[in-house]
Amino acid sequence: MPQGSRPIRRVAVIGAGTMGHGIAQVAAMAGYQTRLTDTNSDALTDAMSRIASNLAGAVSRSKMTQDDADAAIARIATAADPTASARDADLVIEAVAEDLAAKEQLFRQLDAVVGDAAILATNTSSLSVTQIASATRRPARVVGMHFFNPVHIMKLVEVIAHPQSDPAVIAVAREVADRMGKTTILVRDTPGFASSRLGVVLGLEAMRMVEQGVASAADIDSAMELGYGHPMGPLRLTDLVGLDVRLNIAEYLHRELQDPTFDPPRILRDKVQRGELGKKAGRGFYEW
Predict the structure, then answer these.
(1) CA-CA distance, 114 to 91, in Å (whole number)?
(2) What pLDDT, in 10s, does the model give residues 222-241?
(3) Residues near 276 by Cβ (< 8 Å), separated by ≥ 6?
(4) What superfamily in CATH does domain 196-278 come from?
């Protein structure tokens, strides 16, 4: 354990959506006492159902024993109040909507209740960790931990260090991710970090190619899957992430980096305006 840090035993995950429930699952599987929080009770019910289903699938594929699955479920408690849930946590991982103002407000609330030694982590995929940290009185103990969807399958965690980061906190974040079975990369706090910046460039260019009639969405995806070994093409991935989410990230990167590469193409703006948001809406670049 790095100097000045304490062992992580209790993890609070704020937000029980697509990312939050997955983070809670891998935290519990790693042996951490985990509290999953969401103000929406239906989201908590759905999250626990998804976690149970994921674990049952792992048992059926002989990836884990039933006893281990039962133990992981038993380590997860749910609650509606984020501040109460975080109060005694050693590590709090925020997984709420990708909105800077909402994250800043939440971190101010967390900062007021957690212990001095607690670490606050944000799962943001592109927003400024520096700005999120500045909402607290402990910026040195704030870190970015960007997980990937689906969390229980994807092996990468992007750890983001900002100018005031405590190296010991960065080390603990990497140790926690390692215990969760992940591989970490360390990235300086810059818009889009490494993964989102590269992924958005590829996705936006694929959209422009569809717009220009270069090839169909399916054929463009096949080019990347079969020609470059990507597990999923950029347009199908966009449908899974959500076109509205991709648009928001692209607009943020375009504004922050002042680079026309990130200017969202008309096809993306039009689809979002029509409500074609991808899998969650039944239609995006594909029919679902």
Answers:
(1) 9
(2) 999 999 999 999 999 999 98
(3) 243, 283, 284
(4) N-(1-d-carboxylethyl)-l-norvaline Dehydrogenase; domain 2 (1.10.1040.10)
Which residues, including other chains, have CB under 8 Å from residue 182's CB and lie 6 or more apart?
A: 26, 147, 155, 156, 157
- Give the CATH fold of the 10-188 domain: Rossmann fold (3.40.50)
- 179-182: which pairs have CB atoms within 8 A and are 24 or more residues apart? 179/30, 179/31, 180/26, 180/27, 180/29, 180/30, 181/26, 181/29, 181/30, 181/155, 182/26, 182/147, 182/155, 182/156, 182/157
pTM above 0.85, yes or no: yes
CB atoms under 10 Å from CB of 2, counted, come to 13
DSSP β-ladder status, 10-14 and 183-188: unpaired
Question: Which of 47-53's residues contact partners 24+ apart within 8 Å by CB, and which partners?
Answer: 47/16, 47/17, 47/20, 47/21, 47/78, 48/21, 48/76, 48/78, 50/21, 51/21, 51/24, 51/25, 51/76
For 28-53, the pLDDT digits (tens) are 999 999 999 999 999 999 999 999 99
Residue 112 clears pLDDT 90, i.e. is over it:
yes
CA 281 to chain centre: 20
Residue whose structure tokens are 């680079």: 259
d(CA 78, CA 38): 8
- Residue 78, strand partner residues: 36
Token pair recorded at residue 18: 């697509």
Segments making up each domain of the chain, as ranges: 10-188, 196-278
Length of the chain: 288
